[in-house]
Amino acid sequence: MLIKRKDGEIHPGFKWGPFTMRIPGVHLEITPSQHLQGGLLLLATCGSITPLAMKYFDISLEVAWTVSLVFLVWVIAQTVLFGDIYAAGAITPALPLTIVYLNTLTPGIEAIHGMIAISIVVIALFLFFGITRLGEKFNNVIPAPLKAGIIMGAAIAAFQSELGRLPTMPITLVTAWVIVLLLMFSIPFARLPDTKAKAIAGSNALLIAFALAGVVGFSTGEVTFDLQWGIFVPPIGEVFSTLSIWSVGLPPWEMIVSVIPIGFMFYILVFGDLLVAQTLLKDAEEARKDEKIDINMNRSHFVLAFRNLAQILTAGPMPWLHGPIWTGVQVFLIQRYKKGRHVMDSIFSGVANFYLLAIPLGLLLPVMGIIAPLFPVALSVTILLTGFACAYIAMSMVTNNISRGLVLMIGVLCATLGAAWGIGIGTVLYMLLIGKNKENLPIVNDVKIKEEKIS
Description:
This protein is mainly alpha-helical. Helix content is 67%, strand content 2%. It contains 24 helices and four strands.
């Protein structure tokens, strides 16, 4: 029996500590119409990271796919187990910077240890700032040009990686790039009359790009599909023997210390995502008075710490970390949420239904046979969108030419020499070039910029 809430209340669930468990079918209404679209999109996007896991961790596709499915378990746990309000995702802007770091390590155990080291530092930062409630103060201390430079570093690293990937499947990748940029960022497309077709295209930009790229890639011979029938049996034993912290052990202390600057960069990116998420949800709350939306920044810190800790304890690291929000999906769900309770009972049920079928679909070999050949396309589109958005967000965070030049310089240093050099030299240059006349724009400006990008 579905447990309903009264108007104006927080959606019911089972409270445990600062968290709330909400079970689909008990606390959350099940709406099958969202299962297939959400499941396929989640699999394609999360699966896009498997080529990087295979490359840097020296593992098989089966192992990488299994760890991706475990990653999805902890993504879904944000809503079902922990009861945090956002549509969970990964720290996607950090991915290009992660690649820069992993390129300095030997594939295999060293790279696995490197990713575990980053996870440990980021988990510690989430717990520290969650317990002390100093996250906002820390974020406000960092000058806008330095934050923008870190974001620009992610953009430069993203474009570098994709230019290197282009020769492997040029026609397919260019097709995917053009389609996704057109549907998500094109000003002429945005000015077209608002029709149902336009709304469907805009909200399913990634799926449309993957599908058309698959057709083009198959036609040109750049993509081949190997369909098989059956159920995928995850190689749990191999996962634990090759990736698990229980098997590979903890990274050396020196490695953990060396990635502390990277951890702080990641935290700055995550805090920006949390601010974006807050703004989006407050807008949703204005439109729906029947549900009180419980936004708790400190709870989100703890949820992120536990999700990332659970990832390395239950399976192993991935080349990206658990983050608070999948922005595109969050915006899509909020637009449906605003239409009323008859369309989406709760903001939690919207997220749960969109994510619910991902893992069952991921265990079907025919689905895996269709999606796996498109992993390079999905990865390329993910990184390209990250780079494109990060680039103009970074430039929009500063308002004078000196700051813009500094942002680009810090970005190049972060993307080429690494986090420590980027932050260190960037801080010195900031003091020399800008000094006390610091340009630290209100946080809300960053949020508006990102919201504009995804609307």
